[in-house]
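Appendix B, example 12.
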Amino acid sequence: MYKLETHLHTAGQSPCSSGMPGEIAEIYSSLGYNGIVCTNHFMRLYIEHYYKFKSEKETVDYFLKGFSDLKAACAPKNIDVFLGMELNPDEFSYMKSEQPRAELLLYGITPEFVEKYGFSLLTLPHQELFAICEENNFLLSQSHPFRDNISAVNPEFLHAVEVFNGHPGHNSRNDKAAEFCKANKLIPLAGSDF
């Protein structure tokens, strides 16, 4: 059996995490994990108010650094690290006063994909993002769709939904997410939101 963490953030790249790559490698090795998907946040809120880099390239490089640092730390522990992203596109931005607000998880992406699209990932409409994922065999999921101030997005443009989110600081209403997943015949995912 291959044990995989599907929703993990690293300190610095995602302000909700205090886990440094070496610490993450130790923890996941001790728990018998074979792989981790590094899903650091990519959202305008953090880009403008947390990262504060002058250029798009600097921001993209910084985002990718979280992945590469984790990959390097996990290699000696024989833990595979895959690039993912927790994307908060402008269409669902937390910077808007009105709903809908949501975060989408992208799986299967590559550094070249992130470098190619950069900030345009923020402006893509949900339907267009889904089409790009379909074209590239990426998996598009919604994370914690029933937390406070978050809306479940159109399931027609999702492959999966996070039916279990383990973040202890939020009520993710995982039971509602599981019902939504089943009703819409989506792939169920679970992650710690480390």
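Residues 56-74 form the longest helix (19 residues). DSSP finds seven helices and eight strands in the chain.
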